[in-house]
Amino acid sequence: MTAIAACRSCGVELFDNARFCYGCGSAVAGTDTHAEYKPVAVLFADVYLARERARCGDCDDAIPVMRAAFDHLSRERRLSGWSTLVNGVLVETLVDRAGEGDLAEAEAAIERLAGAPVDDDDGLAMRDIWLLRSRALLARARGEGVNYLEFVNRYRDMAASLGFEGHIAWAEAMP
Fold first, then answer.
1. Is the pLDDT of residue 51 over 50?
2. Facing residues of 13 across strands?
3. ∠ CA 145-56-104, rounded to 5°
4. pTM
């Protein structure tokens, strides 16, 4: 990736095709952000592209994108399904990298999501299942076997009770 410009809000160098600043989450000039859903959907797409970069070994560039996305959603008070998913991707990536400070940051991200208000029962179920998954991943990374097993069992039970096929598969894949 090559830098092409600097963010007008914070000065961070922007990369090719960036729609949002990785430093502050501001929309990049020239992007279509008029419809309310577009910035969030684009931000979410950026997070999943960053997730794929992280899976290919480029965590150092991917994690700031994820952080900026969650911070942007927090500032915009869009702590809902979108922020739950972004938080889950961030936590998973931090736990996978497990560098200095990553597990502490993952724990802080989990607690920030846990304390966020939820508007409806569907949002609560989504938040709670992602919290269980994230807490299980963190416990495993810390070598907390008993806590890990407790979280995994609760995660499996909740995934099955809600019929969330993706989470059921993820839960079953956890050792």
1. yes
2. 6
3. 40
4. 0.76
